[in-house]
Amino acid sequence: MLGVVAAALGGPEVLQVTELPEPKAGPGQVVVRVRAVCVHPADIAATTGEIPRGPVPPPFSPGWDIAGEVASVGPDTTDFGVGDRVVGMIPWYLTRGNPGGYAEFVAADADWLVPLPDELDFVSAATVPLNVQTAHQGLALVSLAMLSGGSTLLVTGASGGVGGFAAQLALQGGYRVVAQANDGDEQWVRDLGVHEVVSRSADLAAVGSVSAVFDAVPVGEAAAAVVEDRGIVVATRPTPPLVPDRGVRQELQLIRHDRELLADLVGQVAAGRLRTRVAVTMPLTEAADAHRRVLAGGLRGKLVLTVG
To answer: 192-230 b/e with 16+ CB inside 10 Å = b?
Structure first.
């Protein structure tokens, strides 16, 4: 089969399309014929070595989120049958690229996958698992910390995958949502139903005081500055420590896979209760150029690699 591996640590040029042995399903596993795999900033961070827990020694395969069909089933696997449509998240923080999703076939634990409803296509589905679980779990930190329904939450990066889901889930939770959108992309964020939209280039101080920030970009201190005393900031990547004298709580949200949660949220996307969007698709064999496109910025939606 064809796969994409990072042959060294570095920029997009380290990604190589190569022939790899087709995987076999072990106990509790299935082999997924990958139809779509999402390109995440986390994939780019992996190739440059800028990830939590330290760099992964090459060669390895990037790729967290896959959607496709079950090609074969391993021993003691009863959850899926051959031909089932599935979507899921390879817990890359555990696999460290063995496997990764940038391949025609992936041997995946059945627990990593959930059924893919017929109403949701492979490409759109591949944008969901990492982004929506990160958003949901980050909002859970906000809720457990202090906030009640009706409190004001600022979501940075609401034009993106995590931020867009966070804004929508916060609305479901009854929060008043102020969402930061990329310049020129305000209408899509407004259409999510948020209460107020602020442009990326605007001064966040104009937002006024908020109870909490879901810092999906993250922008760091500029977002934290608008949080009221003893509020909370949840960021999706490490940020410098906040000045402690205001008692603002600072939390880092790193993804953890939750199969039951993922099945529920995928169902919500399929039913139209949560929205996602795809900016562009590219063939798996153009993974290096795909990384260049993401690094260049300006995409409105996710970039998805397609297979077959």
So the answer is: bebeebbebeeebeebeebbbbbbbbbbbebbbbbbbee
Is the Cβ–Cβ distance between 121 and 87 less than 8 Å? no
Q: Which helix (H) or strand (E) holds 32?
A: strand 29-39
Contact between 67 and 36 (Cβ < 8 Å): yes
Joined together, the tokens standing for residue 86 give 């599935």
Parallel, antiparallel or unpaired: strands 65-73 and 105-109: unpaired
The amino acid sitting at 222 is A
**Alpha-carbon gap, residue 248 to 261, rounded angstroms:** 29
* 167: enclosing H helix or E strand: helix 161-172
The strand pairing partners of 180, in sequence order, are: 198
Q: Of 18-32, 61-75, 159-173, 245-259, where does mean pLDDT reach its minimum?
A: 245-259
CB 211 within 8 A of CB 223: no
Listed in order, strand segments (DSSP E) in 140-294 are 152-156, 176-181, 196-199, 210-215, 227-235, 249-252, 278-283
Paired strand residues for 152? 176
Whole-Å CA distances, 67 to 122, 180, 252, 275: 5, 29, 28, 17
Q: Which helix (H) or strand (E) holds 188?
A: helix 186-190
Task: Give residue-wise pLDDT tens across range 72-108.
Answer: 999 999 999 999 999 999 999 999 999 999 999 999 9
Could you give the CA distance from residue 233 to residue 230 in angstroms, rounded to a whole number?
A: 10
Strands 176-181 vs 152-156: parallel, antiparallel or unpaired: parallel
Q: What is the dihedral of CA 262, 263, 269, 274, to 10 degrees?
A: -50
Q: Which two tokens stand for residue 107?
A: 């041997």
Instruction: Name the residue among 99, 109, 107, 120 with its Cα closest to residue 33.
Output: 107
170: three-class secondary structure by DSSP: helix
Distance between CA 254 and CA 245 in Å, rounded? Answer: 26
Mean of the per-residue pLDDT values of the chain: 95
Tell me which DSSP letter residue 103 carries: B
